[in-house]
Write a structure and sequence with these properties.
It comes from Amycolatopsis regifaucium. This protein has 289 residues and is of the alpha/beta class. It has 8 helices and 12 strands.
Length: 289
């Protein structure tokens, strides 16, 4: 069973108001560390102790971690849910445990949630490429069955429609939300007909695989192939060419997650909120302009 990380100590003169458990995969995304730091900073401001628990991005581990946190008598749970079965979320809601879903939002209205806006953000990326006269815009999709990636796929289709471009399944490949899966998906699209002149990549982790495969094939990003992505990796502005992307508001997500959990504890009967925070468009050179 996964061990809990010790609660983060508060400043010496800060009284402890609540103890929160954070259940998430510590290394599932390039921004996981940034999200943890954002939650800790927000917790400190409100006098909350934070206990971390690594789910390993597995539903089975997630259930074990939640049991440990409840046994540790935390006042509430911040959960970045693993893909797949929502049994853990259902159990938390049924038992009335104050809970906020963070980053990966679910398609439900009975629990507080906070994450990035996905549909309009990806739509804007597609329209940016269409404005550069690209008509064959491919899409590296994330893992199926996850609301976040379903929304990004919808944003891709919406962007095509608003740009007067017909959607075709031949320009879409699933990258399984991993670098290796994205590399394989990129190779598939570039070896097929019609071959895309531009790619929209649905996550930071998959951008690594896309970059790798393009370089392996000798394709010049920004010249032979325009690439834009969702999520701003630390290296995105340092590679050549730098990556055009939508940067998630990680600091705001962490802060709002803590605030929502405090609000739920204060008023258990309040209507659940789903908060979607707009990402920031960062224009660099990988799109070719």
């Amino acid at each position: 069973m996964t061990a809990l990380s010790p609660a983060l100590p508060l400043w010496e003169d800060t009284p402890v108001t609540h103890r929160f458990g954070v259940a998430m995969a510590m290394h599932a995304n390039p921004y996981s560390g940034e999200l943890i730091r954002a939650i800790r900073r927000a917790g400190r401001r409100h006098g909350c102790e934070i206990t971390l628990a690594d789910t390993g991005d597995s539903v089975a581990n997630e259930a074990a971690v939640i049991r440990e946190l409840r046994a540790d008598r935390v006042d509430g749970v911040l959960l970045v849910p693993a893909a797949g079965d929502e049994a853990v979320i259902n159990g938390l809601v049924r038992m009335g445990v104050p809970t906020v879903l963070v980053d990966r939002m679910a398609g439900r209205n009975d629990v507080d949630q906070v994450g990035s806006e996905n549909i309009q953000a990806v739509c804007a990326l597609v329209r940016h490429l269409a404005g550069l006269r690209h008509r064959k815009i491919g899409f590296i999709a994330g893992e199926e069955g996850m609301t976040t990636h379903e929304e990004r796929a919808l944003g891709y289709r919406l962007g095509l429609g608003r740009s007067g471009i017909r959607w075709t399944s031949q320009l879409v490949a699933c990258g399984r939300s991993t670098p290796g899966g994205a590399a394989a998906a990129t190779a598939k699209l570039l070896d097929s007909w019609p071959s895309p002149t531009a790619l929209v990549v649905a996550s930071e982790a998959m951008m690594i695989g896309v970059q790798y495969e393009a370089h392996r094939l000798g394709i010049r990003i920004g010249r032979d192939l325009a690439i834009v992505g969702y999520g701003d990796m630390e290296w995105a502005g340092q590679v050549t060419p730098a990556v055009t992307t939508m940067a998630q508001p990680i600091e705001e997500i962490g802060r709002k997650a803590v605030e929502l959990l405090l609000a739920r504890i204060t008023d258990p009967e309040r209507r659940p909120e789903s908060v979607r925070l707009a990402p920031r468009f960062i224009h660099r050179r990988s799109c070719g302009c």
